[in-house]
Structure formats: structure tokens, C-alpha cells
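Sorry, any thoughts here?
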Amino acid sequence: MEYVYRLPVPPFLSGEGVRAAILDTGIVNHPDFEHRVLLFKDFVHGKTVMYDDNGHGTHVAGILGGSGRMSRGKCRGIAPKVQIIALKVLDRHGNGSLDQILNALDWLWENFRKYEIRIVNISIGTLPDRETKEGSLMMEKIDRLWDADLCIFAAAGNAGPEKGSITSPGINRKIITVGCCEPFPVIGRGKKIQIRCSGRGPVPESCVMKPEIVAYGKDILSCNYRYMEGQKAYVRKSGTSMAAPMAAGSAALLLEQYPGLSNAQVKLCFHDSCRNLWLPSNQQGWGLIQPDKLLKAGAALEKPAVHR
């Protein structure tokens, strides 16, 4: 995973003991997950055996927590020992209804303590409308989860470079929205390659800065959902969907080292550790994630107060 290894990832941490929920197209039993998928819940078809009929969710999960087993570590994810809760909210076309997402958010609210979930990755998005803009029911449910101390990461979407092109739920003012630090290729209709840009802030009808951070999202090599059918173990994908799990995986490393940090403190650690790319703030937010400096920022917060 070439772009992952351009990030300074601490070699002594792996996300062990940290649990992350991924809302996406599902997940398959790829060898890189090594039985670390604790739970699969299907909000699309109600199936009980884990599956992914699109591949997006498996790819995202590999970036966040793949072990790299099938590549001898070359394609290892950011947090290779993180435990995964896979919530399928999108179908084989990558589409989903608002009700399916709301049901998944309700399930998280009812079960995050039971499964000790600390991180939520949402690499999905839609341009905000009446049902998904600020103040909507979806935003209320996400706010409630954030206020319960879950670290929520959402993709900024691929609708840039225009201002106000952040997708929902990335427009939520509380959560950590992740953009790409460079343009990236995507396959459009007719299977033609198009060059897209990360969604940019500010949030429409608001002064909220988005995204907060950026990560790499171009040509990321990660787990292929069709590996068990005889295809290659890894496949390349691009977009902010790939950037978000890099940030979520970095948070897993931080919480492994400093489990007492709150989600607000995790967000502050990103603020204090990102590398300035000297791009407009509505494009890069605080800058490019730096997992090694993220841990240093966490150490500063964990130090006891000095009384004089």
C-alpha cells in the first residue's frame, strides 16, 4: 500500500484492543482480516453471513485494519490488529436508502457499549438535501453518537473542487471529516476514467470549516472482495473513501496507546499534529495526517497537570 507507507506510521502500534465500526457495502472473509471481524450486520438484505457484493467496504476495511498477510506486509493497513464491526448499509451498486443508514445508526446507539466500539468510519456520502442537511434526523443521530464519545470519521466526498461541495454526513460540525490531499482518478459512467477532487468547505448555509484533515486517497492498494473467487488479493481504488479509513486507523493507534482520551481530545490531537500543505483551509483543513506526531500530541494530553 504505497501511499500508506508514505505516512510515518509508528511500527510498535497496531490498533490492538481497539474496535471500529465500518458503515459501508459489507465485508468478505479476506485472509488479511484474520478472524478480526467481530460482527457483521446487514441492513440492506438482512443476511446473517457476512458478504460484500460491491467491494468498497472490504477495500475500506483493508486500509483501516488489514494485516497485509497475503502480501507479506506490503499492503498492510494502518491498524493491522484493530477489531472490526461491519455494518452493511449500501447495496451492490454502492447505493443505500436513508432508512438503512438511520437503522444502522440506531443499532450503533443501542450496541456500541456492548461491543466497546470506539471508532466509526463512514466512507459514504450524498450531496446534502432536506433529509441529510444540518438539523436533519440523520445529523441528530450522529450528534448523539459523537456526544456519547464515539470517534466518527466521514469522507468529504468526491464532488470538489467547488466551494461547499462536502457531502453528507461529512457536513456534520462535530465529527472529523477527511478529504484527499491530491486529485484522484475514478471510473465514471461508461467506465471512462475521470479526474475528481475532494469535496471542499465551507458547509453550505454555514461558516463551519470542512474538511478537518486530509489523507492520501489516490490509487490505494487494499483488499479485493473477489480474492476468494480466484482474483488478485488486492485492488486499487481512489477517492475520499480511501482517505477516511487512514485517519480512522491512525485514531485506533492513538487509542491503543492512550485509551483514556475522549473523542474531543482525539480531534484536538489531529489539530495539533497535521502537516500544513499550504493549501486553502477549505481544501486541507488542518493539513495532512501524521500518525507519529498524532501520538506525540496524545502524550502531551496524557501528561498530568503541573501545579505550581
